[in-house]
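Why does residue order matter? Because the sequence determines the fold. Keep that principle in mind as you read this record.
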Amino acid sequence: MTAHKFALFSGIFFIAIGILGFIPGIVTSPTTQIDPPLILDGGYGYLFGLFPVNWLHNIVHLLVGYWGYTASRNYKSTLFYCQGFTILYSLIAVMGILPVAGTTFGLMPIFGGNVLLNLVAAAISAFYGFIAELEPDLVGLEK
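Structure:
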């Protein structure tokens, strides 16, 4: 896989989970009383029963997905996306571990299963953004 394809596939992935987060049957209600409270609790639940989300979180997924999808069209944009995604999602993963920041200060849940998902996504993005060489000769990908 190339950085271009990573940006494209991650964009499509985040758009898909952003959309799925709005579907009530796929998002289950929290079942425990130990979940941290949210200021914005609209749509709060667990995507696939594993990943805590709310409406703001879903919108962020849609925006990140759009960013990845559009960045995959250009050599420099792909590199910027991979590097920016790595930094952003690494910080979000660390915040998700901290009790005071695990809900981004009450706005959206980034704790629980999100921490591992964000770390894995950041690690893959780090590979394409900082280690692997970009291939600008791909058809349709301008340098």
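The chain has a mean pLDDT of 89.
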